[in-house]
C-alpha cells in the first residue's frame, strides 16, 4: 500500500485505477435507528463507485527541481506554529523538504508565529519584518494574513509573497496557494461511509467559515455517494469571525462526545488544534475519528490517541509550500496550479495504521473518478 508520506503522482495509481474490478458492495446492516432522516436499522445500502479509464485519471507530472540555494525564505505561521500537528506543521514540512531537496540553506530561512488574541496589525508587522530582513519569498500561512499581505506586498513590490488559503489579494508579486479541500474531504467521507457500523457519522468544524464549510460539504458528498441514506451530523465549535474554535480542544471534546452519544461512530475533525479534543472524545467512546491537514496518526503530539485516527484528510500545504519555493527558485511561478487538488497531489488521504487498507480499491476508484471529471465535488452543501 502507499507509504504515509507524499508519494509519486504517477506511481500511486499503478494498482489503484483498475477500478472496473471494484465490485458492487452488498447491503450492510446498521446497528441502530439513526432517525432525523438517516437510514433506518438494516437499510444502510452501499453502492459501488463509478469506473473510469486509467488514462483519463492520470495525475499531473511533478515540476523538475530547481536550485534554491540562493534564496532567503521567510515563513509566517498562523496560531500554533510549527508543532501544531496540523496545518502549520504541514507548511513546516514543505520548508524542510525544500532544505532537503532543493539546496535551500537552513540558515537562510526564518520562521515566525502568530499569537492567540493578537491584533491584525501584529500579522502585518510580522510580514513587514521578514521583508525588511531581506527574505524573498515570504510565505504567509493562513487567510488571516490577507490584509497584511495586501499591505506589505504593496510596500515591497520587488519581494515575492505567497499566501495559503486566500486568493483575494490581486497583486503581481502575490501568489495564492489554495486547495480543493472538498475533494480530499469527499474521499474521507467515502471512507467513513464504508467503515461506519451505525450509518451515522459526524463532522466537527473549527469555525463556521466558507473555508471549513468546504471540508463539511465534501465529506457529506463522499459519505452519501457511498451510502445515500447515511446521516451526517455537522457542528462547528465557534461561529463565523470567532477563530477560537481552532484552539478549543475542550469544546471539541464536548461536541464530538455528543455526536458519539447520539449514534455516530466516526467523526471528521477539521478544527486545527481542537482536533485533539475530538480524538479524546473518540477514545473515551471507543469509536473512530478522522484527522485533517497532516497525517495526524503520525503526529508525535497525538501518540496517546493515534489508535482512534482511522485516516486523515491530507491537505498538502507541504506540497504547495515546496512547489512554490521550487517555482520561485526556477522562475516558474506562473506555471503553478491555480488550485491544489487531487490531480496535482494537493489533497488526499492517509493510510497510516492500516485502518483503510481493506477499502483502498473503492477509495482509489473515487479518486480516479474525481480526477477524470466523472464526479464533480461541490464546495458548498
Automatic annotation (TrEMBL):
Superkingdom of origin: Bacteria
InterPro entries: BMP_lipoprotein (IPR050957), PnrA-like (IPR003760)
Cellular component GO terms, alphabetical: plasma membrane
First and last residue of the signal peptide: 1-31
Claim: Signal is one of the keywords in the record: yes
CDD domains: PBP1_PrnA-like (cd06354)
Pfam family, one: Bmp
Residues annotated as transmembrane: none
Domain ABC transporter substrate-binding protein PnrA-like: 78-379
Subcellular locations according to the entry: Cell membrane
Keywords: Cell membrane, Lipoprotein, Membrane, Signal
PANTHER family xref list: ABC TRANSPORTER GUANOSINE-BINDING PROTEIN NUPN, TRANSCRIPTIONAL ACTIVATOR PROTEIN MED
Protein's name according to its UniProt entry: Membrane lipoprotein TmpC
Protein's organism: Pseudonocardia autotrophica
Gene this chain is encoded by: tmpC
Amino acid at each position: 500500500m502507499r507509504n504515509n508520506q507524499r508519494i509519486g503522482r504517477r506511481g500511486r495509481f499503478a494498482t489503484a485505477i483498475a477500478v472496473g474490478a471494484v465490485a458492487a458492495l452488498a447491503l450492510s446492516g446498521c446497528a441502530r435507528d439513526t432517525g432525523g432522516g438517516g437510514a433506518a436499522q438494516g437499510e444502510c445500502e452501499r453502492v459501488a463507485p463509478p469506473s473510469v479509464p486509467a488514462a483519463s485519471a492520470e495525475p499531473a507530472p511533478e515540476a523538475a527541481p530547481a536550485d534554491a540555494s540562493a534564496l532567503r525564505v521567510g515563513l509566517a505561521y498562523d496560531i500554533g506554529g510549527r508543532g501544531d500537528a496540523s496545518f502549520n506543521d504541514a507548511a513546516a514540512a514543505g520548508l524542510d523538504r525544500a532544505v532537503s531537496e532543493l539546496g535551500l540553506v537552513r540558515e537562510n530561512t526564518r520562521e515566525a508565529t502568530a499569537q492567540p488574541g493578537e491584533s491584525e496589525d501584529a500579522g502585518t508587522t510580522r510580514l513587514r519584518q521578514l521583508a525588511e530582513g531581506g527574505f524573498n519569498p515570504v510565505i504567509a500561512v493562513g487567510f488571516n494574513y490577507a490584509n497584511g499581505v495586501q499591505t506589505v506586498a504593496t510596500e515591497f513590490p520587488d519581494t515575492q509573497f505567497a499566501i495559503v488559503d486566500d486568493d483575494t489579494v490581486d497583486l503581481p508579486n502575490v501568489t495564492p496557494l489554495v486547495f480543493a479541500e472538498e475533494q480530499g474531504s469527499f474521499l474521507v467521507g467515502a471512507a467513513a461511509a464504508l467503515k461506519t457500523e451505525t450509518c451515522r457519522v459526524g463532522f466537527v468544524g473549527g469555525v463556521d467559515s466558507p473555508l471549513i464549510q468546504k471540508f463539511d460539504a465534501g465529506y457529506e458528498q463522499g459519505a452519501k455517494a457511498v451510502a445515500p441514506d447515511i446521516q451526517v451530523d455537522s457542528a462547528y465549535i465557534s461561529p463565523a469571525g470567532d477563530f477560537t474554535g481552532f484552539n478549543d480542544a475542550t469544546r471539541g471534546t464536548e461536541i464530538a462526545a455528543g455526536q458519539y452519544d447520539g449514534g455516530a461512530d466516526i467523526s471528521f475533525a477539521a478544527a486545527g488544534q481542537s482536533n485533539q479534543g475530538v480524538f479524546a472524545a473518540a477514545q473515551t467512546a471507543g469509536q473512530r475519528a478522522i484527522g485533517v491537514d497532516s497525517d495526524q496518526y503520525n503526529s508525535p503530539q497525538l501518540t496517546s490517541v493515534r489508535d482512534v485516527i482511522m485516516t486523515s484528510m491530507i491537505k498538502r500545504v507541504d506540497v504547495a509550500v515546496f512547489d512554490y519555493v521550487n517555482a520561485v527558485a526556477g522562475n516558474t511561478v506562473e506555471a503553478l496550479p491555480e488550485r491544489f487538488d487531487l490531480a496535482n497531489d494537493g489533497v488526499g488521504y492517509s493510510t497510516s495504521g492500516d485502518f483503510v487498507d481493506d477499502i483502498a480499491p473503492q477509495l482509489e476508484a473515487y479518486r480516479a473518478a474525481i480526477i477524470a471529471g466523472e464526479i464533480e465535488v461541490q464546495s458548498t452543501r
